[in-house]
Amino acid sequence: MKVGFFIGCNTAFNRPDLEQAVRFSFPLLGVELDDLEGQSCCPSWGTMPSVDLAGWSAVSARNLCLAEEKDLDIVTVCGSCYGSLGEVRHKLQNDPSLKEKVNAILKGSGRNYRGTADVYQSVGYLCQNIGLDKIKQSLKYSLAGLKVALQPGCHSLWPSEIYPDREEDSFHPHMLGDMCRALGAEVVDYSRLTDCCGMGGMRSADMGKSFDLLTVKLNSIKEEADPDLIVTGCSSCLIQMDTAQLPLNKDKKINFTIPVLHYMQLLALCLGAEPQKVAGLAKNDVGAVINKIRGDGNV
Amino acid sequence: MINGSAEIVYDLSAGDPGFIAEIKEMGGEELLECIQCGKCASVCPMALAGFPIFNKKLIQAIFFGARDILLDDSSIWACQSCNRCTEICPRDVRPFEIILAMRRVAVRELAIPTLSIEGLKSLYDVGHAVYLRDAGQTRLKVGLPETPPTVLASPEALKEIQAILDQTDLREIGLFPMQGNGMADASEV
Fold first, then answer.
1. pLDDT tens column, A165-212
2. Confidence class for position A295, pLDDT limits 50, 70, 90
3. pLDDT, tens digit (0-9, with 9 covering 90-100), for A232-288
4. Which chain A residues have a beta carbon less than 8 Å from that of B131?
5. CA of A17, closest CA in chain B: separation in Å?
6. Contact residues, chain A, for B157 at CB < 8 Å
7. CB contact (8 A) between residue B77 and residue A35
8. Burial class of B136 by CB neighbour count within 10 A (0 to 12, 13 to 18, 19+)
9. How far is CA A253 from CA A225, A242, A259, in A?
10. What is the pTM of this model?
11. Contact A52/B104, CB-based, under 8 Å?
């Protein structure tokens, strides 16, 4: 099995430990990664999608072409990339005149978008194509005794109709929880599970409002679930929830710290990855979580 | 988390009668399906965070032709693109598409946040809207090559991206100089 790895700007430049986690885990589960050399920005929402529909679609379609030219699907750990590429794929499937415009733009580069490559997010891809049993059997360490709260991420869920790895009920998602339980973790519920983390356009527009939104969510997590760890399905949620806790503590908006990892980092740790490589850039100390995973009697 | 914004008063006589057609043209095709039921607002992070104009109110303001008022408010740029509204809308209005359409109208009036211009410029200059100059060191720290196997490592790929962007409305709008090496564009005025 082989899939194109769409890295995404934030993962490549901001959290390459997450990139390492993907590069470590996928092959161990029998999935070879193709680098889709020359891939660009998806492009993200505040750029081309906000300027020009055909222009947005052309940049995305070029990225999709890189995979379809190799007869591959795409997998990404970033919700925005998943959404932007997925939306364009969906639009091009349903709008022949847009597809014509896009192919006219791509013609100069010698490309022709056909629409054969599907776009998956990492958790959904592994859940569907590898399955919980194979993941369980591949683990070197288990998360037994670890309480995790989930942050699936907006783009992993909506609009569900465009995604090949959609949830049965997108307002009550279960895939990320199933995948965490497969690692042996206890998944603890809280009422604001599907609330937004506040990253993205909102943080760019007004950091105060973005952080206030996150504060409500973090308080809900702490008071109702009190987990050892927050597990995200999206690199943007990872960055927001990990970095924002420092200023929120400083400003006395919250008085606790909860470590945050993307699911792929947690999976890589359970598969035996070197912690520094796959989780070495976490802003909030993940040492206790890693010790719990790799500690005595847990091999 | 309570909406602390001032109430917006619309002067209905100042409405722009062509505005609905403009929004539809820019991608908000299902606009007129909206019955203002408010389900989109009930799930909108912008509404929860207290931005004055969120999906439902944006659509209502478009119905009124309140083009100038909307151009003066930057709320649309705080939209998370999360598509909760698209998912829940019982009329398939696709409210997020209407936010994008309004952004496209605003961009043509040069009403666009600096961060978006920077992102677009970065997309054109290096192929990534988000690019951190010292990222190479961060990558080395976790054992990855300094440069990822993206457009950053491929001058040909960058030329291709620039050639694509040169054919979009971006060039006509003129938010920043587009002088890539991808295309012979010396004749451009």
1. 999 999 999 999 999 999 999 999 999 999 999 999 999 999 999 999
2. confident
3. 999 999 999 999 999 999 999 999 999 999 999 999 999 999 999 999 999 999 999
4. 9, 13
5. 6
6. 37-40
7. no
8. middle
9. 18, 15, 17
10. 0.94
11. yes
Q: Are A210 and A202 in contact (CB under 8 A)?
A: yes
Contact residues, chain A, for B165 at CB < 8 Å:
48, 55, 59
Alpha carbon distance A2, A290 (integer Å): 30
Residues B129 and A47: beta-carbon distance below 8 Å: yes
Amino acid at A14: N
Whether the ω angle into residue A159 lies within 30 degrees of 0, i.e. cis, is yes
- Tokens coding A202: 């909102």
Partner-chain contact B81 A51, CB within 8 Å: no
List the alpha helices (DSSP H) in A158-281.
175-182, 201-205, 207-224, 235-250, 263-270, 275-279
Distance from C-alpha of A6 to C-alpha of B82, rounded to nearest angstrom: 20
What mean pLDDT value characterizes chain B? 91
Tokens of B17: 């009668």
Structure tokens at A56: 């947005």
pLDDT of residue B9: 66
Q: Which residues contact B119 (CB under 8 A, 6 or more apart)?
A: A44, A46, A47, B129, B130
Encoding tokens for residue A246? 């420092």
DSSP-assigned letters across all residues of A92-155: HHH-HHHHHHHHHHHGGGT--------EEEHHHHHHHHT-HHHHHHH-SS--TT-EEEEE--HH
Distance CA A184, CA A275 (A): 18
